[in-house]
Specification:
By secondary structure, the protein is an all-alpha fold. The relative contact order is 0.11. Helix 1 packs across helix 4 (119-129). Helix content is 60%, strand content 0%.
């Protein structure tokens, strides 16, 4: 009877390996999302590739490690001034939806920063390094 193989254990091992591979792919994808969203070679809003001659902009009131091209920088500064009540814009597209767009983007940047600083993300990074 000792020579009979237990197929249940083999099936469980195979299932565990498959689950590990599925999780590994998801973890790698999540890590790429975090890395790419923090890239200082592209604009964090529009994705425009920043040249070394471009001066990336990370305002002090914003999450660290996001960079904006000149156009997005100007729009973001307008948004910040409008949000703080310092200015009202005369540009026709600076409407409620435009404000929501920048607000959602800013919230997204904050969420990425918070997740990046979480214990779970650190665990994920360690897991991928192993």
């Amino acid at each position: 009877m000792n020579k009979v193989l237990n197929i249940t254990n083999r099936l469980e091992d195979k299932k565990r390996k498959q689950q590990t591979e599925i999780h590994r792919g998801k973890m790698e994808t999540l890590q790429r999302i975090i890395q790419c969203s923090s890239c200082h070679f592209k604009c964090a809003m529009c994705g425009y590739h920043l040249n070394t001659t471009d001066s990336p902009y990370a305002p002090p009131s914003s999450p660290p490690n996001f960079y904006l091209c000149e156009s997005c920088r100007a729009e973001f500064e307008e948004y910040m001034e409008m949000t703080s009540g310092k200015k009202e814009s005369s540009i026709f597209w600076h409407n409620r939806e435009w404000m929501k767009l920048w607000s959602a983007w800013f919230d997204f940047q904050q969420a990425i920063k918070e997740f990046k600083n979480s214990v779970e993300f650190e665990q994920l990074t360690e897991e991928l390094d192993n």
